[in-house]
C-alpha cells in the first residue's frame, strides 16, 4: 500500500488536536488527524461538555427547589437519574458530530486508529480489523491529552473506585460518594451528586477547596457548598482506599485525627497525567519530564518536526489552552511568528453554583511576587439585578498593582461568573488599568456592574455601596 | 510642608527635551502659585513656566543652559500650607503651539491627586496600552522614547514586558535615553525657525522690512558643529571628475528586476558607498580621528549619509560597511532612508560614523565643498550626474559625468593621500562591471 504523505498530521482529536488540524487546513496545509477513539477528545466526550450538561440538571433542580420563593409550588418533584445521564450523552454526541463535520468541511483526513510514531515523519496507524497503515508528515503535532491520575497503590476499579469518566456514565445513582480531590472536577461532581440527592463528602489535602483560586473566595465557596449539604474535609490526607463488595472505605488523617469514611463509591479526582507512553515518544527520544512532553514557546519538542500541545504538555489542563496552543503551534510552523501565549491571562472556571471564575494572580500569589496591591471588592448583594434574579450570593474581587495600576488578577464568585470573567481577561490581555475598567460604562441592571464597581472600589470610588 | 517635584514639562507632541534658559527664582526665594518660576527653550518654542504651587524654591536640580529630557525633575518646591497641588508645571502655552493631546486625564487637575501628566500622542500611530502609558509616565519615558522601544506583543505592539525590559536596561545603563540633540532632530516634527519678537532687535531691524526668527535647537546645534569643524580642521578640497556611465547603465539594466525582487528602488547611493568603503580599505588613514597628538584608527567602516530632512540636516550611519556586499549595502541604505522618512531612527542609527558622504547632487549642484563631520577627517560630496561631451581616446563621446569633491583634514590627510583616495573611488565607479549580478 502506498504511503500517504501530509504536511501536518495531528495525533489525537481533542480540542487541542482538532483545532490545530483546522488551522493547518485553513493555512493550506495538507492535514490528517489520527484518533483512536471519538473525535473531540476528553473535552467533548468525557470532560467539559458532558459535565456541563449534568451541572445544568443540578442547577434546574436547585431552582425548582426554591420554587416557593417565586410563588411556584408543586408536589412530587422527582429526579430520573438515568435520563439525566442520557441527556448528557446526547449533548456530547451532538457536539462530537459537529467536530466530524468540521473535519469534512476543512478537507482534513480523519484517520481512525492508534497512531505510533516511527521517526523521520512516519506514523503507523493500528486499527482493529484493518491492516496497519503508514503515513508520513513533514510536521507531527502530538495532542494525545491526559488521563485521570490516581493515588499510588489505589487502582481505579471502575466499580467502587471510579474516575470522572465513570462518574458521568453511572447507570445507578450512588447513595453516597466520597470525592477525593477538591479541584474543579471534584467540586463540580460533588455539587452535581449532592444536588441530585447523593450524600457527598469531599476530601482535600490542601487547606482549602479549589486550591488554585483566591482564598477569600474559596472560603465563601466552601461555606456555600456546605450550606447545600456537602461535607468538606480540608487538610485531610487519604491514607488508604479499600473497596468492598458493596461499598468503599476511605481512611483519612485530618487535623482532628484519623477518620474512616464509607461510601457507595469513591471518585478519584486528584488530577490528570499526560498520555506519553506507548506511541513512540521514547523511541524518538522526545524529552518527557514528570509525565509531560517538554516543548518551547512555539511548542516544538527537542526532535525536529515533532510538536506537542494541550494536556500532554502539562498544566494548565484546560481545553481552551489546548486549542490556543494548537493554533499557535500551526501558525509558528507556517512561519507566521505568532506572539507567545500569555499564560498569565488564561481564565479558569468552575461551573457549580455559585460559580467561580478567575484570571491572573490570586491575592496570596501577588503578595508573594512582591507586588504592592490595590484591591477592589464588590459583592453581588447590593446589585439590583442580583436581587431581582435571586442570585445575591457572590463577589467580584480585582487585584491591581499599586505602582503601575496593572490588573494582576480578577476573581468572581457567583451566578454567571464564568461568563462575566471575560471582560477582565480582555482587560488584562490588553493591559488596561482599573481606571479604564470603571470608566467603561456597564449596562444596568447586570451582574457585570459588580466588575465596574469593584474596579472603582480599588480607587475608593465605588458608588452603590 | 510637602516637597513638590517640578519637572521639565512636555511642550508639545514629539518634544523630547528642553533647555533651561533662566531661573527667575533663587533657592530660598518665595514663589506664588502661577508666578513665573523659570524660562525654558525647546526645539519648537520658548516658554515661561509658572510655579505649580505656592512655596519656597528648595532646590534647583538642573542649572541654566542645561538640556534635559521632558519629565526630568528640575527643581523641588517646599509647598506652603496643607493644600498641595502636586501637579507638575503646566505653562501657559503660546497660541501658535500645538497643545499636547491628553490621554489619561484632563489637564490641570486641582485636587491633591498624584500628578498625571498626559504623554504626547504617538506620532507613529502605534497603539500603547493604558498600562504601558502608565509605566512610561511613572518611569519618565517620553513618547518619542517610547516610540523606539521594540514591541513583541500582538502585531508588534510594545507590551508591558517590552517597556519593563527597556526600563530595566536603562536603569542598568545598558541603553542611554535618546536625549542627545541629534535625536530630537531625527524625531521632532515641525519648522526649523519660528518668528519671535525681540524688542532690542526691533529698533535695529524694523518690521515689515525685517523678520526676526528664533533659531531652533537643531539649527543652533548645526551652527555650533559647523563652526567647530571649520575651526578644528584645516579643510582642503580636491575635486575630481567621474564618469558614471557604467553605473548609470548598470542601474538602468537592473532597476526593475531589483525592485521586484527586493521591494525597494535601486539608487546610486549604494554604488558610491561601496566605492568609498573599498577605497577606505586601501587607504585606512582617512578612516581616523585625531585626539591631541594621537591618531585614532578605526578598524570598522561606518559610513554616514547626509540627508536633508524637514527638521534639518541628519546623518544616519551605515554600520560595518566593510562587511556588506553590494546588496547588503543597498538594503542598509534603503532601511535607513525609510526609517529617516518615517522618523523611526534610533539614537544608535546616527552615531558612530567614521566617514561621511553628502549627495548635494540631488539639488542639481555640480560642485560643492562639504564641511567635515567631526571628529571624522574626510567627507565626499557628490555632484549631479549630467550627460556631457567628453574626449575618450581622441574621440568625442557622450558620457554621464559628475564631479566629486573630497574635503579632508590636512592635519592628517595630505594632498597626495586625499588625491589618491579620491582617485580610487573614481576608478571603481568608472570601471564598474556592468554585468555584475547581485
Ligand atoms: C471531567 C472533566 C471535566 C473537564 N472540564 C473542563 C472544563 O470545564 N473546561 C476546560 O477547559 N477543561 C475541562 N477539562 C479538561 C479538558 O477536557 C482538557 O484540558 C482537554 O480535553 C485537553 O485537550 P487535548 O486536546 O490536549 O487532549 P484530549 O482532549 O485528552 O484529547 C486527546 C485525544 O488523543 C487521543 N489519543 C491519545 N493517544 C493517541 C494515539 N496514540 N493515537 C490516536 N489517538 C490518541 C485520545 O483518544 C483523545 O481523544 C475537563 C476534564 C475532565 C476530565
Q: How would you sum up this structure in a few lines?
A:
The complex is a heterodimer of chains A (465) and B (438). With 465 residues, chain A is α/β, with parallel strands linked by helices.
Structure keywords:
A: alpha/beta; FAD/NAD(P)-binding domain; Enolase-like, domain 1; five-stranded parallel beta sheet; 14 helices; 32% helix; globular; B: 438 residues; alpha+beta; OB fold (Dihydrolipoamide Acetyltransferase, E2P); Chloramphenicol Acetyltransferase; four-stranded antiparallel beta sheet; 20 strands; 26% helix; binds flavin-adenine dinucleotide
Give a description of the structure:
The complex is a heterodimer of chains A (465) and B (438). With 465 residues, chain A is an alpha/beta fold. Chain A folds into 3 domains: 4-147 and 273-343, FAD/NAD(P)-binding domain (3-Layer(bba) Sandwich), CATH 3.50.50; 161-270, FAD/NAD(P)-binding domain (3-Layer(bba) Sandwich); 354-458, Enolase-like, domain 1, CATH 3.30.390. Chain A contains 14 helices and 24 strands. In chain A, strands 1, 2, 3, 4, 5, 6 and 19 form a 7-stranded mixed β-sheet that branches. In chain A, strands 8-15-9-10-11 form a 5-stranded parallel β-sheet. In chain A, helix 7 (215-228) links the parallel strand 10 (199-203) and strand 11 (231-233). The longest helix of chain A is centred in the first third of the chain and has 25 residues, at 81-105. Chain B is α+β, with helices and mostly antiparallel strands and 438 residues long. Chain B is 26% helix and 24% strand. Chain B is built from 10 helices and 20 strands. In chain B, strands 11, 14, 15, 16, 17, 18, 19 and 20 form an 8-stranded mixed β-sheet that branches. A 4-stranded antiparallel β-sheet of chain B has the order 1-8-6-3, with no helix packed on it. Chain B has a 4-stranded antiparallel β-sheet with strand order 5-4-2-7, with no helix packed on it. Chain B is globular. The relative contact order of chain B is 0.11. Chain A binds chain B through residues 339-340, 403-406, 430-433, 435-436, and chain B through 104, 129-132, 134-135, 138, 152-154, 159-160. The complex binds flavin-adenine dinucleotide. Flavin-adenine dinucleotide binds next to helix 1, strand 2, helix 2, helix 3 and strand 4 of chain A.
Amino acid at each position: 500500500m502506498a504511503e500517504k504523505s501530509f504536511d501536518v498530521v495531528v495525533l489525537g482529536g481533542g480540542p487541542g488536536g482538532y483545532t490545530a488540524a483546522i488551522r493547518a487546513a485553513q493555512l493550506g496545509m495538507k492535514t490528517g488527524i489520527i484518533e483512536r477513539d471519538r473525535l473531540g477528545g476528553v473535552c467533548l466526550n468525557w470532560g467539559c461538555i458532558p459535565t456541563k450538561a449534568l451541572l445544568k440538571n443540578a442547577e434546574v433542580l436547585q431552582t425548582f427547589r426554591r420554587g416557593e420563593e417565586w410563588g411556584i409550588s408543586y408536589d412530587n418533584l422527582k429526579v430520573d437519574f438515568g435520563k439525566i445521564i442520557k441527556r448528557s450523552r446526547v449533548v456530547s454526541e451532538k457536539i462530537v458530530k459537529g467536530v466530524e463535520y468540521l473535519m469534512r468541511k476543512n478537507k482534513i483526513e480523519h484517520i481512525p486508529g492508534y497512531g505510533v510514531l516511527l521517526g523521520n515523519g512516519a506514523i503507523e496507524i493500528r486499527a482493529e480489523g484493518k491492516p496497519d497503515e503508514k503515513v508520513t508528515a513533514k510536521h507531527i503535532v502530538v495532542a494525545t491529552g491526559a488521563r485521570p491520575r490516581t493515588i499510588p497503590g489505589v487502582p481505579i476499579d471502575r466499580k467502587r473506585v471510579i474516575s470522572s469518566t465513570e462518574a458521568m456514565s453511572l447507570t445507578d445513582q450512588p447513595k453516597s460518594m466520597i470525592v477525593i480531590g477538591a479541584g474543579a472536577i471534584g467540586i463540580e461532581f460533588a455539587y452535581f451528586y449532592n444536588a441530585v440527592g447523593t450524600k457527598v463528602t469531599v476530601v482535600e489535602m490542601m487547606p482549602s477547596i479549589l486550591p488554585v483560586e483566591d482564598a477569600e473566595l474559596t472560603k465563601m465557596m466552601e461555606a456555600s457548598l456546605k450550606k447545600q449539604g456537602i461535607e468538606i474535609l480540608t487538610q485531610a490526607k487519604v491514607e488508604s482506599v479499600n473497596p468492598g463488595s458493596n461499598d468503599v472505605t476511605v481512611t483519612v488523617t485530618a487535623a482532628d485525627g484519623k477518620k474512616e469514611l464509607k461510601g457507595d463509591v469513591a471518585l478519584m479526582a486528584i488530577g490528570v497525567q499526560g498520555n506519553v507512553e506507548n506511541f513512540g515518544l521514547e523511541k524518538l527520544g522526545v524529552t518527557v519530564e514528570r509525565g509531560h512532553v517538554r516543548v518551547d514557546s512555539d511548542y516544538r519538542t527537542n526532535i525536529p518536526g515533532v510538536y506537542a500541545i494541550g494536556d500532554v504538555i502539562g498544566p494548565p489542563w484546560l481545553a481552551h489552552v489546548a486549542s490556543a496552543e494548537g493554533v499557535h503551534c500551526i501558525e509558528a510552523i507556517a512561519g507566521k511568528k505568532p506572539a507567545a501565549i500569555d499564560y498569565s491571562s488564561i481564565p479558569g472556571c468552575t461551573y457549580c453554583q455559585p460559580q467561580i471564575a478567575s484570571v491572573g494572580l490570586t491575592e496570596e500569589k501577588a503578595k508573594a511576587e512582591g507586588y504592592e496591591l490595590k484591591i477592589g471588592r464588590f459583592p453581588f448583594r447590593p446589585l439590583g439585578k442580583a436581587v431581582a434574579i435571586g442570585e445575591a450570593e457572590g463577589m467580584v474581587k480585582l487585584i491591581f498593582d499599586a505602582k503601575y495600576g496593572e490588573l494582576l488578577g480578577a476573581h468572581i464568585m457567583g451566578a454567571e461568573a464564568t461568563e462575566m470573567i471575560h471582560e477582565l481577561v480582555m482587560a488584562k490581555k490588553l493591559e488596561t488599568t482599573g481606571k479604564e475598567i470603571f470608566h467603561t460604562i456597564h449596562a444596568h441592571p447586570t451582574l457585570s456592574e459588580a466588575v465596574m464597581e469593584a474596579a472603582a472600589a480599588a480607587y475608593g470610588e465605588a458608588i452603590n455601596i | 510642608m510637602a516637597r513638590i517635584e517640578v519637572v521639565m514639562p512636555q511642550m508639545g507632541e514629539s518634544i523630547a527635551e528642553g533647555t533651561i534658559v533662566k531661573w527667575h527664582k533663587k533657592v530660598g526665594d518665595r514663589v506664588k502659585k502661577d508666578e513665573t518660576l523659570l524660562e525654558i527653550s525647546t526645539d519648537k518654542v520658548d516658554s515661561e513656566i509658572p510655579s505649580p504651587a505656592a512655596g519656597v524654591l528648595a532646590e534647583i536640580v538642573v542649572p541654566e543652559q542645561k538640556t534635559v529630557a521632558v519629565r526630568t525633575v528640575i527643581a523641588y518646591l517646599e509647598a506652603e500650607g496643607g493644600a498641595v497641588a502636586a501637579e507638575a508645571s503646566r505653562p501657559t502655552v503660546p497660541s501658535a503651539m500645538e497643545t499636547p493631546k491628553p490621554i489619561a486625564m484632563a489637564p490641570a487637575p486641582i485636587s491633591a491627586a498624584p500628578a498625571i501628566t498626559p504623554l504626547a500622542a504617538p506620532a507613529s500611530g502605534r497603539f500603547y496600552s493604558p498600562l504601558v502609558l502608565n509605566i512610561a509616565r511613572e518611569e519618565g519615558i517620553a513618547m518619542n522614547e517610547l516610540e523606539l522601544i521594540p514591541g513583541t506583543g500582538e502585531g508588534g505592539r510594545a507590551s508591558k514586558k517590552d517597556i519593563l525590559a527597556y526600563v530595566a536596561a536603562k536603569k542598568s545603563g545598558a541603553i542611554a535615553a535618546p536625549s542627545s540633540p541629534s535625536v530630537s532632530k531625527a524625531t521632532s516634527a515641525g519648522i526649523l525657525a519660528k518668528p519671535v519678537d525681540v524688542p532690542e532687535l526691533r529698533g535695529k531691524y524694523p518690521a515689515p522690512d525685517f523678520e526676526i526668527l528664533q533659531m531652533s535647537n537643531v539649527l543652533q546645534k548645526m551652527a555650533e558643529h559647523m563652526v567647530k569643524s571649520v575651526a578644528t580642521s584645516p579643510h582642503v578640497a580636491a575635486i575630481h571628475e567621474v564618469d558614471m556611465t557604467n553605473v548609470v547603465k548598470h542601474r538602468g539594466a537592473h532597476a526593475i528586476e531589483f525592485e521586484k525582487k527586493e521591494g525597494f528602488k535601486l539608487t546610486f547611493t549604494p554604488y558610491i558607498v561601496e566605492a568609498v568603503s573599498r577605497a577606505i580599505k586601501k587607504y585606512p588613514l582617512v578612516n581616523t580621528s585625531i585626539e591631541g597628538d594621537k591618531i585614532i584608527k578605526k578598524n570598522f567602516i561606518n559610513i554616514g549619509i547626509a540627508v536633508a530632512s524637514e527638521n534639518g540636516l541628519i546623518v544616519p550611519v551605515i554600520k560595518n560597511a566593510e562587511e556588506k556586499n553590494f546588496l547588503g549595502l543597498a538594503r542598509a541604505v534603503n532601511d535607513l532612508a525609510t526609517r529617516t522618512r518615517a522618523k523611526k531612527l534610533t539614537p544608535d542609527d546616527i552615531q558612530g560614523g567614521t566617514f561621511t558622504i553628502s549627495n548635494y547632487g540631488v539639488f542639481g549642484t555640480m560642485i560643492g565643498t562639504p564641511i567635515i563631520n567631526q571628529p571624522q577627517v574626510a567627507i565626499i560630496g557628490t555632484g549631479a550626474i549630467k550627460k556631457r561631451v567628453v574626449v575618450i581616446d581622441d574621440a568625442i563621446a557622450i558620457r554621464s559625468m559628475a564631479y566629486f569633491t573630497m574635503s579632508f583634514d590636512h592635519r592628517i590627510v595630505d594632498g597626495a593621500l586625499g588625491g589618491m583616495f579620491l582617485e580610487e573611488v573614481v576608478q571603481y565607479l568608472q570601471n564598474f562591471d556592468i554585468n555584475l549580478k547581485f
